[in-house]
Design a protein that fits this description.
about 800 residues, mainly alpha, membrane, AB_hydrolase_fold, transmembrane helix, transmembrane, Integral membrane protein
Length: about 800
């Protein structure tokens, strides 16, 4: 078996060795592909599966790859290249299994805590499609990268608020709170009788270990996941604009290798986190030293520290503003001095801030709260301005080359960036409020978090109300659509006895499948409501900070009470949401059914390289796409055989991306079969610059042939909607689902409604695969138009 595995793993080279060469014509025939050997490379979709299920055989052998992602064959097919006569008229099935890239043990559920980073990274790739306007395109990427930087600062600032302000400054400095939490006694100046750690500056320096450790953890996870998932180099090739026009960036040699950019952004974001902690520790001490009569040496040192922090912040922003990705070539360079020097310089400033803050100041006492309102208010204001600027840039790009199918008329990126900022704000505000409630059981011992964070927590109930209203409207629309679909289902099966229950189930499944097409409306309304509520929270925080609490209670009692109720409810909701978040995350990684439920959203998010935020979850496609590209290129080059890459769901996206990465000559020898594919329905609408109509049309022209299968009951897959004659040539008419309405001779039991699964069980799948293989057969060339097109779906087949 090992010999057979070795032969198959080398692309069948043992079958073309010296014995074949001495065999004369037969050896030459095998080398140039006239043996008729065909390969069907299967790529599974969301949720994953096993090689045995994909190949329909319990006996499988790994051909190439490792425990994370590998290519498998049936044991009897391991040495198929050496026996081409046994495979005439049928392909050699081969399965690429990549599910371990996105699933594993329950600890990966912690990646869900990085959701804001993943969402803002998505916004980078949602740029509208355009021609020219290079500077505008670069401005779009710059704005998203700056938005990602604000999220890192916000996360670290929230950790500083919890550890430094609430714990070390307020609770440890207040007798009532310190008595409630005896483990803080050594930090309390009252309970420790003036111990060494009870000095305010030393308390702050000790508490700074928490946000600093968080920053270090994010740096480590980013570096570790890069090495584990994204360090695979794609095939090195030269991009020739004449032979490979490249109407999508997915075909560029360096698209799936962003090491240089990720390393540069990782250094900048790590430095930004350390500088944020240094500012949180050093600023209170510098403010105390600037008081009248303060020590002059410490005052000078404080100003020097502040100046150094400002210079460091400017350096971080400058690094983030540098040009983004270099995709036209495989960029193996690494900015060593920048990648190492910037975090080390920030670490040195952080250490200096600790020493400066910990200096003895006998007259310094902690009272009230640290002035975090300016920090969090400034972050919220900058994020709002960045989102508005991003919307203007996206509108300019979309107006230059309008796309009727683009989500939210090209504003999908700004809307998603707004949601990322909202997630970060809600998580930071909610966690700070929950910690404050936990520390201050009586509600009177400490002042609590900054007013703005409290107002951000109060935004959650009205935002949740907007989402519930949208859900109710969508439910009503779905119910009405299901009633209308009943007549369509019955008219599609004339002469058969009606079954009201079965008709309702089919109609309801079709109606539910259309909810995917309503997602842009849901995101647009939610994002707009979030922007308005966030602005209201910022204004409310400013007003509350300026108006005394007694006056607010007296003159605006109703408004004040409503705000307090919303803040308390929001605090509990964020705590409940956090628990549910982690619980569902763990279940999604352990339970296959739960993983399929939310898997499509997660797999879409982690499909894209980390180009806007280095702390986002790792990109599995930077491993999967090179795997598929190398396998297809080496197999076709070694055997000269014909190849059909067959992708289901997310596997079809990987298949298309891998096909774009091939040399044009190799691309012409590959057929593409997609089923249940979100290429146009999700990726084409939300990522028009990379999967828009021009990109999909170019894929149809560049591969030898392409067929796409979908069902009206499928909530994920859909037609490609290519313009002109390309549409019928690629899309087959919607498959029947269920295969039979009632009981028949072939199906005496009721056929199930398959939806997004089991496309291979449909006879149309076998028919389309046979046609693709016949077209690729080298003995009898088949013109492109002889692949019999089926009628294109009607305009109302998919809303």
């Amino acid at each position: 078996m090992e010999q057979a595995q070795e032969r198959a793993g080398t692309g069948g080279q043992d079958a073309h060795g010296p014995d074949d060469a001495s065999d004369g014509r037969d050896g030459r025939d095998r080398r140039d592909g006239r043996t008729g050997t065909a390969l069907e490379l299967l790529v599974h979709g969301v949720g994953g599966t096993t090689p045995a299920e994909m190949l329909d055989d319990p006996r499988t052998v790994r051909i190439t790859g490792d425990h994370i992602a590998a290519v498998f064959r049936r044991t009897e097919d391991a040495d198929a290249e050496s026996r081409p006569e046994d495979y005439r008229g049928r392909p050699v099935p081969e399965a690429y299994v990549w599910c371990n890239l996105t699933s594993g043990n329950g600890t990966r559920a912690l990646w869900l805590l990085l959701l804001p980073f993943m969402v803002v990274n998505l916004a980078h790739w949602m740029r509208p499609s355009t021609h020219g306007r290079i500077r505008t395109v670069r401005l779009y990427g710059l704005l998203v990268r700056l938005a990602g930087l604000t999220l890192t600062v916000l996360l670290v600032a929230a950790a500083c608020e919890v550890a430094i302000d609430l714990l070390a400054w307020q609770c440890a400095g207040t007798r009532a709170c310190a008595e409630r939490h005896s483990w803080l006694g050594f930090l309390s100046p009252v309970m420790s009788d003036g111990g060494w750690w009870s000095a305010p500056g030393r308390r702050l320096a000790l508490a700074a270990a928490v946000p600093a450790a968080l920053t270090g953890l994010l740096w480590y996870l980013s570096l570790r996941t890069w090495r584990a998932y994204e360090s695979q180099q794609p095939m090195d090739r030269t991009l020739d604009p004449e032979t490979d026009p490249g109407r999508t960036a997915l075909g560029r040699p360096g698209f799936w290798y962003g090491r240089r950019l990720v390393a540069r952004l990782r250094a900048a974001h790590t430095a930004a986190g350390l500088l944020t902690v240094a500012a949180a520790v050093g600023a209170p001490a510098a403010r105390f030293d600037r008081r009248p009569g303060g020590p002059a040496p410490l005052d000078v040192l404080g100003w020097l520290l502040v100046a150094a922090l400002v210079v460091g912040a400017v350096a971080v922003v400058a690094v983030v503003c540098r040009r983004g990705r270099s995709e036209r070539r495989l960029d193996r360079r690494l900015d060593e001095h920048l990648v190492r020097g910037l975090p080390l310089a920030a670490l040195a400033l952080f250490a200096l801030a600790l020493v400066y803050s910990g200096w003895a100041r006998p007259e310094w006492t902690s009272a009230g709260r640290l002035p975090g309102d300016i920090t969090f208010g400034g972050i919220a204001l900058v994020q709002g301005l960045l989102v508005i600027a991003l919307a203007l840039v996206a509108h300019l790009l979309h107006r230059r080359l309008p796309d009727a199918r683009a989500a939210i008329r090209g504003l999908g990126g700004p809307a998603v960036a707004m949601l990322a900022c909202a997630l970060g704000g809600v998580m930071s505000g909610g966690v700070a409020q929950r910690v404050s409630d936990w520390l201050d059981g009586t509600g009177t011992s400490i002042d609590g978090p900054p007013v703005l964070l409290t107002w951000q927590a109060s935004v959650i109930p009205p935002l949740l109300g907007v989402v519930l209203l949208l859900a109710a409207a969508l439910a009503r629309h779905t119910w009405r659509l299901a009633r209308a679909e009943r007549d369509v289902v019955e008219s599609g099966h004339p002469g058969e006895a009606g079954d009201p229950g079965r008709t309702r189930r089919i109609a309801f499944t079709r109606a539910i499948a259309t909810l995917t097409d309503r997602a842009p409306l849901l995101v647009a309304i939610t994002s707009a409501a979030t922007l308005l509520l966030g602005a209201g929270a910022l204004v409310g925080a400013l007003i509350t900070d300026r108006v005394p609490a007694d006056a607010a209670r007296g003159t605006h009692a109703f408004v004040y009470g409503t705000a307090q109720t919303a803040q308390a409810l929001g605090s509990w909701l964020i705590g409940l949401g956090f628990v549910l978040f982690v619980t569902w995350g763990r279940r999604a990684y352990k339970d296959a059914s739960a993983r399929r439920t939310i898997g499509i959203l997660w797999d879409v998010g982690t499909f894209w390289p980390r180009a806007a935020h280095p702390f986002a979850p790792p990109c599995y496609a930077e491993r999967a796409v090179p795997d598929l590209t190398w396998r297809m290129a080496t197999w076709t080059r070694a055997t000269g055989g014909r190849l059909v890459i067959s992708g289901h769901s997310q596997g079809s996206v990987l298949a298309a991306a891998a096909a774009w990465q091939l040399e044009p000559s190799a691309r012409k020898r590959v057929a593409l079969l997609t089923y249940g594919s979100p290429l146009e329905r999700l990726y084409g609408r939300w990522f028009p610059a990379h999967f828009g109509p021009a990109a999909l049309a170019s894929l149809h022209e560049e591969v030898d042939c392409w067929r796409n299968l979908y069902r009206r009951t499928d909530p994920i897959g859909g037609p490609m909607r290519l313009p002109g004659d390309c549409g019928p040539a690629v899309d087959r008419a919607p498959l029947e689902d269920p295969l039979t309405y009632g009981r028949t001779e072939l199906h005496p039991l009721p056929a199930p409604i398959l939806g997004h699964s089991d496309y291979q069980a449909d006879p149309a799948f076998v028919e389309e695969r046979r046609r693709l293989l016949a077209r690729l057969r080298p003995e009898v060339p088949v013109p492109r138009h002889t692949v019999r097109p089926t009628p294109a779906p009607a305009a109302d087949d998919r809303p």
